[in-house]
Amino acid sequence: MLAKRRSIKINDLEVVQTPLLVPSFSSKGFPDLNKIVRYCSELIDKAALFSAYDFHYEKIKESIDFPSLIFLDSGGYEASKDKELSDFGDREHTPQAWNKDMYRQQVEVWRPSVPSIVISYDHPKEKISIREQIERANETFSSRSDIGKEILLKPEKETQTLLPMHEVIKNIHHLHSFDVIGLTEKEAGNSILDRMKNIATLRRELDRVGLETPIHVFGSMDTVTTPMYFMAGADVFDGLTWLRFAFLDGQTIYKQNYSAIKWGISTKAHIIDVRCWNENYYYIQNMELAMRRYLNAGDPDSFQFHSKMFKSAYENLIEALED
């Protein structure tokens, strides 16, 4: 079984065990980000992800001390016009300036009161080789011993849309200095099966060289694909889907439809968002519990919804890995 409980450590001390579903926050598509964070400070008590870009531009002004673990993202998502797979593009995003010096400045002043995982710098217009990405991340983190260190692996060239997994495998021994290894869902493959296969390949190669480092899939917070990536060997998942949509009975649907089903058609529009955020957060917690049940039983029936599909997807994955 590729899925497993793994430890996220800071200075070799465990701060949490996986699987871990991480609600994300971003100003990209959410211009009232500070109000959202303020509201969710009363809701979230586990891990959460925020962007260094948003702290730099003071999109977040709240004191971030409510999560039990913070992931400080690199800002590459906000600095680009690229979209997550779940982003339906209803609001235009105009990126502001963002570069390595701005990122490093934010990392240097980052002194949170709760454990933090800091994610390596990336920018959509600054493509470098996998080996150089590793070296740059190690250099950035060299002065900090009080944070967890995560590398976000990205395509090497602007012409590439997918992560060159063969280059990652070639450099697998050099990933030992990181506490978490990240890749985006969008860049992991052209299909769900391709992404599962690449995640499983990375997992197997890490195991081969004796690294139990958790794998983080960025932009994956979905009722269907996230459990599949988990079964393929990924450990940490984050995304903005929980803010954009609603989760219901194994489906990810429009919030307006969810409101009509759950509360009736008279529900005021301004109430729908906050109600959905509440419901989604607890849905996420239950999905994480289902993942943990799967680890105990090794049975896709541990998931309340889509268990037959998950079993079939895993069988297809194992077959694809033998090709």
What would you say about this model in short?
The protein is an alpha/beta fold. 38% of the residues lie in helices and 15% in strands. The chain has 11 helices and 12 strands.
Distance, first to last CA: 18 Å
In round numbers, the mean pLDDT is 94
Q: What would the principal axes of the Cα set say about the shape?
A: globular
Please report the total strand number as a whole number: 12
User: How much helix is in the residues?
Assistant: 25-40%
Number of helices: 11
Order of helices and strands: EEEHEHEHEHEHEHEHEHEEHHH
Low-confidence stretches: none
- Strand residues, percent: 15-25%
Radius of gyration: 19 Å
Structural class: alpha/beta
Largest sheet: 8 strands, parallel
Give the spatial strand order of the biggest sheet: 3-10-9-8-7-6-5-4
Question: Features of this protein?
Answer:
11 helices; two-stranded antiparallel ribbon; eight-stranded parallel beta sheet; single chain; alpha/beta; 323 residues
Describe the structure.
- By secondary structure, the chain is of the alpha/beta class.
- Helices cover 38% and strands 15% of the residues.
- The protein contains eleven helices and twelve strands.
- The protein has helices at 33-40, 52-56, 100-109, 130-141, 165-170, 192-208, 225-231, 241-244, 255-263, 269-297, 307-321; strands spanning 7-10, 13-17, 20-23, 48-51, 70-73, 116-119, 148-152, 180-184, 215-218, 236-239, 246-248, 251-253.
- Helix 6 (192-208) links the parallel strand 8 and strand 9.
- Helix 6 packs parallel to helix 7.
- The mean pLDDT is 94.
